[in-house]
Design goal:
This protein has 28 helices and three strands. The protein has helices spanning 12-27, 31-40, 52-62, 68-81, 106-117, 128-138, 147-153, 156-165, 181-187, 195-204, 224-229, 242-251, 259-265, 272-279, 289-294, 301-314, 318-326, 345-351, 355-363, 373-382, 386-395, 399-406, 410-417, 420-428, 450-457, 460-468, 484-490, 494-502; strands at residues 82-83, 212-215, 222-223.
């Protein structure tokens, strides 16, 4: 039976309301409510409606849980391990002032230090570690306030002394995020102390190498290993000793199938993290406390690496595709992320105009029959292959219209290449320059246009061309309610932003 994904940070009250609504629907003979029961509890006699517990069972099953009790138990796990870092006010400099602290201020200073020293994936900026070092210079007593501050500072000697006295605190939650010390160590970006030796001290004292938390209720744990490798949608830096720390954690038993670490590092072409993870068993089943805790809401080991292949194929990461295939990742694997739906790596490479990657996948056994003429046509446009477009159109003159219907947002794919000539080619095929992503190959309704994409990349020649072709620089995307100017500013592309500002 197909199921739907549970929302991040799921609310028990919201789920209860779903069950009550479903109960009311069955009593009223609502066709949609009856259809849901027909799918998830087909043997139920709905004469006169259903009980609340019946409706709760169906709601649970619709999210992939065998019972309402199992669903509630899952929510308890999410609540237990979630953390909610507050957005950091980077103008708040009061805590970094010089002078000694008294006992009353020291806990607040310690929290401020940890907040500045560590990635928190809410608002990470490159200058914050320097401010953490400034705070320590002004208040050196903060460094040894707790195991958490010692870990973030890489104070191996301080940790050794403290843990020889009392090991019971080695995994104690604390600090501003409620993390154990090991996480503050691997998420710290101070470049001070002896972080690898400090991690050895913590692990020798019994620290959990799979330590982690759920960022804002997401069911993909941000683990100690995730912190060491860094990366993410804001291109957060890795720990200065990332590989050494990762090896240490993995030797201590950390699960190499770390979904969040894989996701965070997928955005850039460096593969050092994958090489280490494969060395320790990435792609093979491994004991995982997070899979035990999160069950089916955590992707399978196989799906994780298959999703990495799909992403790499779509984004032209040739070396990564080769690395994944060489380690036995299935060329036609299905992955898990809904953004790509049922598309295979070969289909994605074809659509993205990545012909070398497509050949690699075919050589590895990918099913060529899954690629259709529409996908070939889009790929030819993206690759700027005018001869290929003309060949396909000669065979099927109605193909461009069919492509426009199926992939109206092909211009956004083309914009990712940065090629003005490829964009000229796709617009010549009758695509609307202002059509944005509203599903399809690029996933859920992000609603960015080709101009948004080019502005974020700082591709001024392409931005100019799109504007000349009628691109509306006032359109706002649905994700951030921002114009292309806002995307250029967010990407730090001042020259492109200045051009868009002049347009008014």
């Amino acid at each position: 039976m197909p199921t739907r994904p549970l929302p991040d940070n799921p609310s028990l009250e919201h789920l209860r309301n779903q069950a009550r609504s479903l109960q009311r629907g069955t009593r009223a003979g609502d066709a949609e409510a009856l259809a849901v029961f027909g799918e998830f509890d087909p043997r139920r006699d709905l004469t006169g409606g259903c009980s609340l517990s019946d409706a709760q069972l169906v709601v649970a099953r619709s999210y992939g849980f065998p019972s309402w009790q199992r669903l509630r138990a899952h929510l308890d796990v999410v609540a237990e391990y979630s953390y909610w870092p507050r957005p950091v006010d980077d103008t708040d400099d009061g805590a970094e002032g010089a002078g000694s602290s008294d006992g009353r201020d020291l806990p607040a200073l310690a929290d401020r230090f940890l907040d500045l020293a560590c990635l928190n994936y809410t608002r990470d900026t490159r200058h914050r570690p320097a401010r953490a070092r400034d705070l320590l210079r002004a208040h050196p007593e903060v460094a040894r306030f707790s195991l958490h501050t010692m870990a973030a500072a890489g104070d191996a000697a301080g940790l050794r002394d403290a843990l020889e006295w009392d090991r019971s605190q080695v995994d104690q939650s604390g600090g501003p995020y409620g993390w154990p010390p090991l996480m503050y160590l691997t998420y710290s970006r101070l470049e001070t102390g002896e972080p690898v030796e400090a991690a050895e001290v913590l692990l020798a004292a019994g620290a959990d190498p799979d330590s982690g938390r759920l960022w804002q209720g997401m069911t993909s744990a941000f683990t100690a290993l995730t912190g060491a490798f860094g990366g993410g949608e804001q291109d957060q830096p890795p720990h200065p000793r990332a590989v050494d720390l990762a090896r240490l954690l993995l030797r201590a038993g950390a699960d190499p199938n770390d979904n969040q670490a894989l996701y965070n590092r997928q955005f850039t072409p460096a593969n050092d993290h994958l090489e280490v993870l494969f060395e320790f068993g990435l792609g093979r089943e491994h004991e995982s406390p997070w899979r035990r805790r999160l069950g089916h809401t955590y992707p399978s080991t196989t799906a994780m690496v298959e999703e990495q292949l799909r992403w790499a194929a779509d984004h032209g990461m040739t070396a990564r595709v080769r690395l994944l295939l060489d380690h036995g990742v299935a060329a036609d694997g299905r992955g898990y992320h809904p953004n790509y739906g049922e598309l295979t790596a070969l289909q994605l490479a074809t659509l993205a105009g990545e012909r070398e990657i497509a050949r690699m996948l075919l050589d590895a056994g990918a099913d060529r029959g899954r690629v259709d003429a529409v996908q070939e046509f889009v790929g030819a446009c993206v690759a700027g292959d005018r001869a290929g477009v003309e060949r396909l159109t000669a065979v099927n003159p109605g193909l461009p219209a069919h492509v426009r219907e199926q992939f109206p947002d092909a211009g956004v794919l083309v914009a990712r290449t940065g090629s003005v000539e490829a964009m000229r080619l796709v617009l010549e095929q009758g695509f609307d320059v202002n059509t944005g992503v509203r599903g399809g190959v690029l996933g859920p309704p992000l609603r960015r246009t080709a101009l948004h994409e080019a502005a974020h990349a700082g591709n001024l020649p392409l931005v100019r061309f799109l504007v000349e072709q009628g691109a509306d620089h006032g359109l706002r995307d649905a994700s951030f309610d921002a114009t292309p100017l806002g995307w250029a500013e967010h990407g730090g592309n001042e020259e492109t932003a200045a051009y868009l500002r002049r347009l008014g």
